[in-house]
Amino acid sequence: MTRYVVTGAGGMLGYDLETALSGREVLPLTRAELDITDLAAVRSAVDGYDVIINAAAYTKVDDAESDEESALAVNGTGAGNLAIAAAEVGAILVQISTDYVFDGTATEPYAEGTARNPVSAYGRTKAEGERLVLAANGARSYIVRTAWLYGAHGPNFAKTMLRLAATKETVGVVVDQVGQPTWTLDLARRIVEMLDESVPFGIYHGTNSGEATWFDLARQVFSNADLDPDRVTPTDSTAFVRPAPRPAYSVLGHEAWHYAGLEPMRDWREALAEAMDDEFLEQ
Asked: Is residue 243 a part of any domain in this protein?
């Protein structure tokens, strides 16, 4: 029987990975239970396990600009530690990465093999995590890049929109950033499917299909909640100046799924509708 370790089990994706792995032998480890920056602790935790899914990450994108060292410890060194330990015990590693490893200047979806070119501290640390994983356990690792996550078990844009809808008549949302809203439960299920099907090791883009601006996503959230989408008004990024640059275009291509014999993940609108039907925003 395959035995799984899920790091970052207290996070939004970590919770849904536990759901997707229901009925299997899974060791969920929260940040409090495993410090992935401690190699000795990592070695001890993963000993005897067959698959490690690393959903642990430093995700405070803006804070990373002034504390890149802390972000690097988790996103870079921590990922590398898991890869070292995985290699030592012959385990498969799934490393969750991000669209921020790219610069956001593209005009068409980023292919899986596109050279990394991060422009933020967070992006640099996640890119280093990819590099270290591939260096230490590349022959038995998956890099799964994702973006624009929302789900039941953590703060996210969709929940924020509904919270604002309850207190504001209109909500201004940017129209000059394009990406792929992705439901964490869809991503978790795809990761499990990928493992079950033993697709070739390598880099995959774990995002729902299609593309949207944040403005598009906000309007869809309002519409799905039977609220007037015209209450969402367009603005641009200059209205929300933040320490870390946001990618203007971070749509990820899905060719690797085709080569692996799997269809890309479903359209983001379909996923969002099901997520909201499941009342995930109330949890």
From this structure: no
Q: How many domains does the chain have?
A: 1
Helices (H) and strands (E) in the chain, counts: 11, 12
Which SS3 state, helix, strand or coil, does residue 45 take? helix
On whether residue 24 sits in a domain, the answer given is: yes
- Strand 232-235 to 171-174 pairing: parallel
Report the CATH number at residue 120.
Answer: 3.40.50.720
Segment 244-260, tens digit of pLDDT: 999 999 999 999 999 99
Average pLDDT, the chain: 96
Contact 217, 276 (CB under 8 A): no
pTM greater than the 0.85 cutoff: yes
Q: Please name the amino acid found at residue 98.
A: T
Q: Report the 10 Å Cβ neighbour count for 267.
A: 15
Tens digit of each residue's pLDDT (9 = 90 or more) over 87-98? 999 999 999 999
Residue 119 CA to residue 143 CA, distance in Å, equals 20
**Strand segments (E) across the chain:** 3-7, 25-29, 51-54, 92-98, 141-146, 149-150, 171-174, 178-179, 182-183, 202-205, 212-213, 232-235
Known catalytic residues are: 122
Say how far apart CA 71 and CA 100 lie, in whole Å. 14
Count CB-CB contacts under 10 A for residue 234. Answer: 14
Q: Could you tell me if residue 196 is inside a domain?
A: yes
Q: Is residue 68 part of a domain?
A: yes
Q: What average pLDDT does the segment 60-70 reach?
A: 98
Residue 72 is part of which domain span?
3-154+180-209+252-265
pLDDT tens for 106-149 read: 999 999 999 999 999 999 999 999 999 999 999 999 999 999 99
